[in-house]
Every structure is written in C-alpha cells, then in structure tokens.
Amino acid sequence: MLSTLPAGIGRPSRPASTPDPWWRDAVIYQVYVRSFLDSTGDGIGDLAGVRAGLPYLRKLGVDGIWLSPFYPSPQHDHGYDVADYQGVDPVYGDLAEFDRLVADARRLGLRLLLDIVPNHCSSEHPWFREALAAGPGGAARSRFHFAPGRGPDGAEPPNNWRAMFGGPAWSRVTEPDGTPGEWYLHLFTPEQPDLNWRDPAVGDDFEQVLRFWLDRGVDGFRIDVAAGLFKHPALPDSDDPFADERARDSVNPLAWNQPEVHDVWRRWRSVCEEYAARDGHDRLLVGEVSVPTAREHAEYVRPDELHQAFFFDLLSAPWDADAFRSTIDEAIRDIAGTGSTVTWVLNNHDQVRTVTRYAGEPGVEGSGLGAARARAAALLMLALPGAAYVYQGEELGLPEVLDLPDEVLTDPIFHRTGSRKRIRDGCRVPLPWSGHASPFGFSQGAAGARPWLPQPEWFAEHATDRALADTRSFWHLYRDGLQLRRSLPQLGEGTLRWLDAPPQVLAMARGDGLICAVNFGTEPVPAPVTGTPLLSSGPCPDGVLPGATAAWWTGDHPAS
Length: 560
Prior knowledge:
- The chain is an alpha/beta fold.
- The chain has helices at residues 47-60, 95-107, 126-134, 200-215, 243-247, 261-279, 294-298, 313-316, 321-334, 354-357, 367-383, 412-417, 464-469, 474-487; strands spanning 27-31, 64-67, 111-116, 146-147, 170-174, 180-185, 220-223, 284-287, 308-311, 343-345, 387-391, 496-498, 505-510, 514-519, 525-526, 535-536, 544-545, 549-554.
- The chain has an eight-stranded parallel barrel with strand order 1-2-3-7-8-9-10-11. Strands 12-13-14-18-16 form a five-stranded antiparallel β-sheet.
- GO terms for molecular function: hydrolase activity.
C-alpha cells in the first residue's frame, strides 16, 4: 500500500568531512543465528546461513544486523554462556566464515553488530576453571564473586539473592582437596558465573575482546545485561530477594544499576572513538539496559557512554493510546535530552512475539486482532524519531509457538523452575523460508533435516516465499516503511509534534508535511488529514482510519 514517492524527496547526504553517526536513525535487524538459516543440514542455523540471507535483508531495507552469540559455548543458555570470547563455536562455523560474512555485509552496505556478554561467562571458560583450581584466596578467584557460606560449616549461601532464571543465585563448589568450599554468584544459571568487574583484570580482558572483533571489521556491539556488571561491594541481603525471580528482570538494586558501571561504558566508548578517528565511521555500542525509569535509562547514553540503549518501555506498554503516548513522551524528554536518540524495540529473542502479545488472548486463533495491532505498532515505531530494532520473523508476522512439547524445550528457565511461564523457546523456533512442510527451507544442506526446535504446520502461511509474493503481507509493510523512512527527510532523527485526535487515536507530525496516526480502538474514525494515505497497515479508505490501523500521510492540511 505504498504510493509513488513525491519527486525530489530524499534524505540529504552529509559532507564527506563530517562525522558518520549512521546509528542515530538506523534500523537494525536482530539475527538469532541458530534459528535464521541452516547451511549444513544439521538443523541449527549458522554463519554461512546468515551470509546466504544477507541479500534478503538488503532487499528488506534494514541498515544492519545484530548477531546473537556464536562463540564457543556448551549452550546451556544458547551462547549466552560464553566459553571463549574470541572464537566461533564449530556448530556455527569458524573465523574464516565469519570474515566472509563481514566482507559480504560490507559489500551490501549492511552494518554488523555482535552480541557481547560481559556480566557472566560459561562455567567452562578457562577463567572459571582456573578459579576453581586456585582454591580460596587464589588470585584467579577475584575474577568472580566467590565468598564463604553462612551458618554451620558454611553450608548456607552468602546472601539471600535469587537468580533471574529461578533458584538461589549461589552455588557451592568442591575445593581441589575434595572438601565443600566457597560459593560463587550466578544471577542467571549455575553454568553462568558472574564476573567481578571490581577486579581490573576483567576490564583489561574485555578491552582486548573488543579490539579483537573491531580489528576484524565489526561495526559495534550489543551489550548483554548492560546495567549489571557491578554488585554492591558488601553483597548484603536483599529486602525482596524474590524480586528478580518473579520479574525475570533486573530489579534487585544491590545487584543491578550500580554507579561504577558507567566507568566501563566510558572506557568502551573511548575504544570505539579511537577506531572511528581512524576512518571516520562510528562504531556503535547499544546496551540492554533494564532500569526502572527513563531518567535512569538516559544516564547510560550520555555523550561519553553508550551510543544507544534499548528502550523496552514501548515493548511492555499495554495496547492503549494514552499509555503509548506517555511512554513515547517520557523517552523523548529524558533520553533524547542527552543528545542521543531513542532506540525503539517491539520484540526480541526474550519476548513473546508481537502478534501473539497484542492478540489479547492465547493461541494462534487470536492472531487476527494481534496481527492488525502488530502491523500498526510496526508502522508507528518506524515513524518515531530515533533508531529501531526488528527481531527476525517480525517482518513475516510470525505468532508465538505456544504448544511446544515439554520434551523439546531448551530454555533454562523451564528446566530450573518447571514452569512454562516466560519461557523463550516459542519466539526462537527456526524461520520458515519456503514450502509447505518442515523444515520450510530452513535447512539447506540436507532434505528433511529436523530443526532444533519443531516448526508447526501453520508456519507455511508465514513462509518468506509467500510473504514476498503477497503485496499485502507483513514483509511488504516493513519493506515499504523502511523505503520511505530512508527516502523521506521528515522520518528518522528529528522532532515529533502531537496533533489533536479522537480518544484512542494517536496522531503526530514529523517534520514538514508528514503525519502518522494510529487508531488503538476498534471503531473507524475520521482521518486526521485529507487525501490518500502514503502508507497504511491495513485497508484505509479515503477520509477514514479503521480500528487497529496506522497510516502515514504527506501534506499539511489536518482535517477539521
């Protein structure tokens, strides 16, 4: 539903002598590597599969990609338990394949971001193995949070903290002499010991990791658990030890958002600035920052810290016009006020997919309403000032897979708690590319390869080949929105002005003569401008904005 672009409209180019802040309004596509495309037929996506999919992503129109962890790992949390920060797990390829991926991405004009995990590593990382072998008081243990237990014989954990993925946040080790020994901290799983960033060696090691990948040509990093790293130095008891376990989020103020973490981001920013000074191209740091308020969020994107931090409040906002407006206002006021731009997200590898989340009821059967709302939300996000991130499969309108059998679930949350609540496997099922039966073109190396998570039969309705052939599909909505965003100077970075609108309708003006409106209600309302929409998320008759629909217009004649 994209109309012909007005002649002469295009985003002005910057003089060659100016900096290259490409990230300020970039749209980045998140690639969950093991579920994107399998080149070998083993049922697991890999780097060669990502490389094969780059032309597809270029055609979609994104500015770059963020890769989930592909480092050597025992895969207790699918790569977020890193055993070697400077390598590639054989299941995903090798460094030579990674270098080919970098070269192809550069040739296609796509930026490449890596996922880095500095809060914790794998219990199989040489650092942790050395710490275990060193025994109490050994220098290697200072890299982690080791502490003696409480109670008789030290048999109780050092404090009452709980892990976000369930259970106590401490595990006891057996010392080299075979006796029960100290405890170590893990805010996720026992296989992911938290690093102690108060030890200077940890910071030095991670600077080396950054430089290793920057020297191989990456354009930046998505930083896992960016509000973590430092814990209260005394490791005291929490007033609400079950908060993190209940929320599956960074709630415990003794374990998250400590002030010292900002020194780390200043150091990392200086490394990125060093590389940018060499060739004039910014290297990006974008943080997974889970903090209570937008004001605290803004502290992470001050001019000498992270370039961006994901603003999750839009993702968690209820489907309501007032809630969306207040969330957007708060972000623009507090975050854009630092000189950064807001980084909008509607979904990622840890969240229920938008089609299902917005359906208002469980199951694929509720996806009609959910799909309409997800399409409208996507168009709204792409119209907001700042940057945006799109999780793979959102451009296909994939619903969450809710009925995976217990025996195939891999999420450590399920295995530690026995509960399916907030598990993440349902949004990580491998993508459908083509055909009418699993593996739907996902596994390229051998016919009939079984994907690492089973794909439901209804994935056929969302396969990429069908989406490309149907101009009314999610894919074309995203592609058309991205094309306009790149071409219209009013979109991307800039200002936003709210317009008067009926209840449950948001209408905003972007720059000169571009209006985006979203009807959060169920009944049609008069359109806020006269004329034909430039782009809409669903059928949009002249002069009308249907329920659960978003539209963009050009022109400067608001309807009375």
